[in-house]
Design the sequence.
């Protein structure tokens, strides 16, 4: 699909869609609980659908209702491989890194006899050393081809060791698996933990389902190591609501900073543990005016100026903050972007190439992006590179461009935000979709 977006300011009020990150975790926890859970969910997307389909393959019954999802857990008799019901289960993770990295350890802890597949860039995204840790714990994983991978046998409890700087999804996945194991386990994480707020979101989900998580700092060979452990098994809270998504709300809030009209995102928690809530602090540092309300945030445009930031805990904000930086006076440095290379595209390169094609000045230096602001972007034709956040970034950049922005492969938005272009129009944007 091609999106042709004519320059027009965006303004008004929009509801946040349901958080993709929160939804993955809550649906998985519900599928592992001791009874049914009603999950109130306003919106879905391809990634959430992938998690739902995989859990159904593992034996969960997930009913879609007008209010969300009624999740009946994976039957216990099935879940520990006592029945052969899981033999040959196929888990199609589509393009969702979260689905793969969360369900790999969960399925291994269930003793599923399964095959995991994926598409797009997912097969090229890393699963090591998570996979090796699962193999060392007794599960027979064949990862010779990356994806598809096959698994047999059940993972044992014990000590798992992971680095903190490849993907927090490894740690989240193991944390989700721990309550399923017989005996006590710990996860030792060495080095700097990146994307830490996503681990906190996992811990919050576990606590909602009755699992307590403990964290301790120890020294091993003179190095700091964080040790996570947990106690308790999944118990349904009965019902739970998926909160609003800050990663996607960030596109609208940033559009206000880029434009000349204010935008309010409502139905969003200002006290969420989602790290991407710091988009408000970042926009404020750029010079935009930020008004925090109850379950809503408003951004008003003002003169924008550069500042330096780290992407360590907010990788998904980088594309849209780079777009804001491209019209902020001075040079903005976004540091610690290494992990952006292993997302749906090499986002360090695709952020640069896409914004440069639209008239921005950007350079990659090591793992940092250096962006020198200009008053207005030119517009132009770009590819989404199969990456939803690149497509949305380019669409928002159109609101500060002289000429239209044409996005090839604009259907990439379906990965996290299928109604993105509808919402774009609702805020006054001019979008034509072709093909
Ligand atoms: O746990 C999660 O929900 C996510 C963690 C982050 O990945 P990394 O931990 O690999 O940076 C983030 O980029 C991704 O979109 C969602
Ligand atoms: C990287 C993302 O998701 P995932 O890792 O789950 O594919 C994302 O949503 O930007």
Sequence:
């Amino acid at each position: 699909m091609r999106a042709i977006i004519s320059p027009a300011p965006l303004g008004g009020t929009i509801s946040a869609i349901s958080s993709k990150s929160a939804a993955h975790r809550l649906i998985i926890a519900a599928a592992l609980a001791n009874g049914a859970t009603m999950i109130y969910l306003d919106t879905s997307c391809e990634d959430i659908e992938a998690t739902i389909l995989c859990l159904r393959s593992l034996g969960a019954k997930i009913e879609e209702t007008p209010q969300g999802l009624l999740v009946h857990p994976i039957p216990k008799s099935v879940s520990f491989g006592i029945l052969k019901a899981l033999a040959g289960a196929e888990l199609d993770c589509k393009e969702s890194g979260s689905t793969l990295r969360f369900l790999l350890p969960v399925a291994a802890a269930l003793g599923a006899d399964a095959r995991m597949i994926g598409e797009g860039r997912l097969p090229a995204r890393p699963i090591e050393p998570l996979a090796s840790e699962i193999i060392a714990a007794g599960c027979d994983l064949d990862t010779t081809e990356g994806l598809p991978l096959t698994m047999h046998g059940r993972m044992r409890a014990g000590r798992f060791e992971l680095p903190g700087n490849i993907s927090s999804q490894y740690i989240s996945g193991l944390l989700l698996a721990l309550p399923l194991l017989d005996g006590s386990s710990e996860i030792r994480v060495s080095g700097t933990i990146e994307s830490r707020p996503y681990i906190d979101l996992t811990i919050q989900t576990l606590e909602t389902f009755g699992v307590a998580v403990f964290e301790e700092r120890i020294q091993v060979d003179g190095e700091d190591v964080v040790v996570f452990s947990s106690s308790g098994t999944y118990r349904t809270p009965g019902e739970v609501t998926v909160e609003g998504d800050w990663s996607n709300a960030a596109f609208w809030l940033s559009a206000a900073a880029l434009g000349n009209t204010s935008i309010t995102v409502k139905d969003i928690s200002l006290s969420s543990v989602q790290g991407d809530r710091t988009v408000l602090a970042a926009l404020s540092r750029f010079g935009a005016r930020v008004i925090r309300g109850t379950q809503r945030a408003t951004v008003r445009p003002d003169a924008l100026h550069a500042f330096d930031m780290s992407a360590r805990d907010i990788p998904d904000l980088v594309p849209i903050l780079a777009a804001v930086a491209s019209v902020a006076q001075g040079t903005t440095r976004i540091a610690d972007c290494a992990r952006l290379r292993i997302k749906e595209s090499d986002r360090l390169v695709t952020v640069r190439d896409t914004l440069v094609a639209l008239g921005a000045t950007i350079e990659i230096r090591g793992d940092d992006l250096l962006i020198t602001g200009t008053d207005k972007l030119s517009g132009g034709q770009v590819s989404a590179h199969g990456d939803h956040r690149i497509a949305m970034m380019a669409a928002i950049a159109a609101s500060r461009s002289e000429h239209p922005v044409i996005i090839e492969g604009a259907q990439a938005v379906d990965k996290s935000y299928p109604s993105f272009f509808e919402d774009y129009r609702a805020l006054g944007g001019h979008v034509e979709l072709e093909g």
